[in-house]
Amino acid sequence: MALYRDEGVVLKTVKLGEADRIITLLTRRHGKVRAVAKGVRRTKSRFGGRLEPFMRCDLLIAEGRSLDVVSQAASLAAYAAPICGDYAAYTAANVMVETADKIVSTEHEPAQRQYLLLIGALAALARAKHPAEAIGDSFLMRSLSLAGWSPRLSSCVVCGTRDDLVYFSIASGGVMCASDHTPDAKRVDINVREQLEALVEGDWSVLDSTPLNGDTRRLVEEWGEYYLERPIRSMRLLDS
Predict the structure, then answer these.
(1) Residue 237 predicted with pLDDT over 70
(2) CB within 8 Å of 148: residues ≥ 6 apart
(3) What is the DSSP letter of 211?
(4) What does the pLDDT read at residue 207?
(5) Which of 8, 47, 144, 172 could be 25's S-S partner, Cβ–Cβ 3.0 to 4.6 Å?
(6) Where does 38-131 show beta strands of DSSP type E?
């Protein structure tokens, strides 16, 4: 079997047989990869805890017919321990890896910008650089923006005016003015609009200054679910 080396982040794992797991990874050069880690569930596994969600590893992978096989894994960044020790960080990290898994839908298709965004966000979570909820929501909005679904926040999506932007329509793709808003649009105040803009741009001077508004967080969740065309289960955990 042909071998290739890459670095990647573990997005999720699924049990296979008595001792193996199927590992879903987002890699730097090969995009999303699903590979079998043989014997990883055994106590004396040669992989140790390196192939767990949120871990970033240097990998040697053998190409397979249906699934690749992980031959070697060396830890590059152990994000999992500090993230799993904090509930807010853990739930935000789950939103992030679930989002990455859904956005990068085709396997072995390079998605380097998505990969770099993910490792930056996981590193920020592990170091508690910013509020966990803001890191998770910003990752979701920025990841969707990279995929082509960025909200229009500076002018009305109907008429183009920059005045009186007090409504937001998910289906229409952004803010609307009071005169031209559609029935589905929700009224939003200036604070919500500024926070949405900061999440999309990664403006931490704004996001660190005040906690995210509840309305902002609901719009982020609804935006993600609308454009991913499926619920983000990890965000439901945040709501419970």
Answers:
(1) no
(2) none
(3) P
(4) 95
(5) 8
(6) 55-62, 68-78
